[in-house]
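Need tokens for this chain, all 197 residues.
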Amino acid sequence: MHESLDDGAWFAPKRFGIGVGLPIAWQGWLLLATYFGALAGTKVLMHSGLAGSRPMAFALFLAATAVFLVVSHRHTRRRTATATAEASLAEAARTSDQDTLFLCYRSGLKFTCQPRGRAGWFALAAWTLPLLPMSLCLAWLLLRFPENVLPIGIGFSLIVLFWSAVMVFWILSRSEMIDLKALPKPPRRGKRGPGQR
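Here are the structure tokens for all 197 residues:
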């Protein structure tokens, strides 16, 4: 259950890692729906056939993404004491003498991995940077052969899916796993009686 919304936050922080979690208030859901609406608008604008529609669609995409990131960051709940304790645990694990590039937190079938130190960030960049030339190649192919959009899109999707699967397997093989279900749970505060403080 979420904590009380007295702090006016629209989004919950991610439990581990960097970023914004799911919306916890109607304003957060409205912002998320507006962002998806803007993305749909860029898609419609891009295929409208108007002169200069592609640069305008790209500018709209950048502006909508920037606004979404700034507003969601400003309206994200700050981490609680429990999250601070979990961050301390993660920091202790990060500085352990293990020689792994990543830390992976496992809770059942869900995994959250994050780089450990500069070597981990460098390895992650080495895996993700090739996606940029792949995307540029996709854009060139779509401009060169506009009649073959569907086969090019399917081929590109399969290549990226294969690349991502190999990257995830490689990261998991070089990770220290921390099972969150095996960690001790923080004590719950009991209800206080009328005479207790």
